[in-house]
Amino acid sequence: MKDYLNSLIEQVQRVDAAGIALHVLVAAAIGFVIYLSYYLAHAGTVYSRKFNVSLVVLTVLTATVMAVIGNNIALSLGMVGALSIVRFRTAIKDSRDTVYIFWAIVGGLACGVGDYTTAGIGSAAVFLVLLALGRIKNENRVLLIVRGERSTANRIKAAVSTYYDNRVNLRVENTTENTVELIYELSRAAMKKKQKEVETVTDVLYKIENISYVNLVTQDDDIAG
User: Fold this and answer.
1) One Pfam family from the UniProt entry (predicted)?
2) Fewer Cβ atoms within 10 A, N terminus or C terminus of the chain?
3) Gap between the Cα atoms of 106 and 33, Å rounded
4) The pTM is what?
5) To the nearest whole number, what is the mean pLDDT of the chain?
């Protein structure tokens, strides 16, 4: 029994140069699919080319590591121990980036063990799902932020409600001893309906005395002015 366990731990699966090259090439192809998907998903938003390139490299490196480990249990445990000392401190700014990192690792694992069918079908499915969901546009909301003296709060509320025909929601009301800040949420539809008006909501609000500022902010997954 002891000899059998030792044989399992010490056995090494030999992969020839052609096999390793094939693993790496297929992993690079999967990485290119991930690269293309990330590029299309971030069109028109903040796009990081360096991060996108790193996804391709991560896929190839994962496949290479799997080719090195093979089915050697001792080597795999040693690799886990070696990698455990590496601490990643890069902040993930977009939650979708986590999906792409995991996709690159899974694709590399599948290619590293020679399971090209799973890597191909899985990557195609993820690519189509991300592409389809990326085409679904959510209606962005608009935040109207008004700041003025505390005595103007009721007049601000009345002016905003009248201008937008009560189709706004007061989300936040911050007050101090002397000032008040009101944050309203309204839809794009409400904004478009008032685009033909001669007076903008800013014009209406600045007619009220002691208004410090009026800001309109687009709200989606990220905040953009």
Assistant:
1) DUF4956
2) N
3) 13
4) 0.60
5) 79
Burial of 80 from C-beta contacts in 10 A (0-12 / 13-18 / 19+): exposed
**Residues 153-173, buried b or exposed e (16+ Cβ, 10 A)?**
bebbbebbeebbeeebeeeee
| pLDDT mean over 203-218 | 87
Q: What is the DSSP string of 97-110?
A: HHHHHHHHHHHHHH
81 CA to centre of own chain: 30
The whole-angstrom separation of Cα 216 and Cα 145 is: 6
Tokens encoding 151: 């005595």
Query: What phi, psi does 137 have (nearest 5°)?
Result: -95, 125
How far is it, in rounded angstroms, from Cα 172 to Cα 130? 34
What sections of the chain are H helices per DSSP? 2-10, 17-41, 49-69, 73-83, 95-112, 116-135, 153-163, 188-193, 201-206
What SS3 class is residue 181?
A: strand
- Res. 224: pLDDT tops 50: no
The type of residue at 202 is: T
Instruction: Name the residue with tokens 């005395």.
Output: 209
